[in-house]
Design brief:
Blueprint: H1 9-18, E1 20-25, E2 32-35, E3 38-41, E4 48-52, E5 55-62, E6 77-83, E7 88-94, E8 99-101, H2 108-116, H3 118-121, E9 125-127, H4 133-140, H5 145-151, E10 158-159, E11 164-166, H6 173-178, H7 189-195, E12 199-201, H8 223-231, H9 234-244, H10 251-264, H11 269-283, H12 286-291, H13 293-309, H14 312-319, H15 324-336, H16 343-360
Length: about 375
């Protein structure tokens, strides 16, 4: 863990006085455990993290097999926590579930006992990695615990691998008879997929993202209205805001950040897919851009920090697929320079476009519809085998 000696003395003193504690007992050696943007392998003396700045954090961990059994690291589990000054959260490792059990935090006597023994525990608590604090805040400044709690699974755990079970549990002969036979070769990929049992998320384990409307247009829309709503996604965006963020529309930026953190730190691919869908909705909503200046000024700030954190190889492997980002942002910049857009937003969008063009060498002025996918130059240090 980071060395407190490297920290500014005033910051260290303030965190020592105001910081929260995560006391995590029994975490097996070799477990990969992290908080926010940094992780470590747990050593034999580890009993938690101290000097944690009050506020929201993302604790994440992967159980590991002992070296004698191969030492493989399991899938990542994470949870969002909001910590008060000097708060102590106490958890015990449950070897059966390979998870942290926080029920001890509800036991006031136990927490008081831990507080009284903090001096003895101190050598076994690693200091919060303060050097990543600025990055963490820049990735979550729009995300409240209220929004995080409403989006994370009811189980409270964000899991890299979905916990799925069959839609039909096949306990009855009739159910098994209706399942397609598997004793002959498949003639096509579709036939093979159709033979697999249909699966669903185990109740309480699914992320609860805002549902994005399947239809971009209102019921009873004319063909002209359908065409208009397909080019300008403002109708669909307003439905999402009305249904999920009616009181605070800017919380949709918190949802965008939640999805991104789940992907970037939690390894949840579903988070990336939802981030893309929300981004398309926001960037292709021309009328909303004229009406919701604050939302779009906020969007530029959120994207500025997110695009600065995506590892370079993701740009090549995932983000650059189908020119997703360049084409989506090209529409955004085109709409932001259109009539009726607030002058401050227009200028901010121009500066953001110039920043991205310089940093990633993306050409937003090329006509992407009339030419093959354009990748002018790979990000620095990236090669394609």
């Amino acid at each position: 863990l980071a060395n407190v000696v490297d920290m500014d003395p005033d910051v260290a003193r303030r965190l020592f006085e105001e910081g929260a504690f995560l006391v995590l007992l029994g975490v097996p050696q070799g477990t990969e455990l992290g908080i926010d943007c940094k992780s470590w392998q747990v050593g034999p003396r580890f009993k938690g993290v101290k000097m944690i700045p009050p506020g929201m954090h993302f604790l994440h961990y992967c159980s590991a097999n002992p070296p004698s059994c191969g030492g493989e690291i399991g899938p990542k589990t994470g949870l969002f926590l909001t910590l008060k000054p000097r708060e102590i959260l106490l958890a015990n490792w449950d070897p059966k579930t390979e998870d942290l059990d926080f029920s001890a935090s509800q036991n006031e006597e136990e927490v008081s006992r831990i507080r009284a023994s903090l001096r003895d525990l101190d050598p076994f608590l690693g200091p919060y990695p303060y050097e990543v604090m600025r990055k963490w805040v820049s990735l979550t400044d729009r995300l409240s615990q209220e929004v995080a709690s409403s989006l994370q699974p009811l189980s409270g755990r964000v899991c890299a691998f979905s916990d799925v079970i069959p839609v039909v549990d096949f306990r009855h002969t009739k159910d098994r008879e209706e399942q397609p036979r598997n004793d002959t070769a498949c003639q096509s990929m579709k036939e093979g997929l159709d033979r697999l049992p249909r699966m669903k998320h185990r109740e309480g384990t699914e992320l609860r993202f805002s549902a994005i409307p399947e239809k971009n247009y209102p019921p009873g829309a004319t063909p002209a209205e359908i065409t208009q709503c397909s080019m300008d996604l403002s109708y669909a965006l307003e439905r999402v805001l009305e249904k999920n963020h009616r009181l605070q529309p800017l919380n949709v930026l918190g949802e965008l950040q939640f999805a991104f953190v789940c992907f970037l730190i939690g390894n949840v691919y579903e988070g990336f897919e939802h981030w893309k869908r929300l981004l398309v909705l926001l960037c292709r909503a021309e009328e909303a851009m004229r009406e919701r200046k604050e939302l779009y000024l906020g969007l530029i700030a959120v994207l500025y920090h997110q695009l600065g954190e995506i590892p370079p190889d993701f740009f090549v492997d995932i983000v650059s697929q189908d020119n997703f980002l360049t084409s989506t942002l090209q529409d955004f910049f085109q709409f932001a320079s259109g009539p009726g857009v607030d002058g401050t937003l227009r200028k901010r969008a121009e500066k953001f476009k110039a920043h991205l063009t310089k940093k990633f060498r993306w050409d937003f002025d090329a006509d992407l519809d009339d030419c093959a996918p354009v990748v002018v130059e790979l990000p620095e240090g990236v090669t394609v085998d």
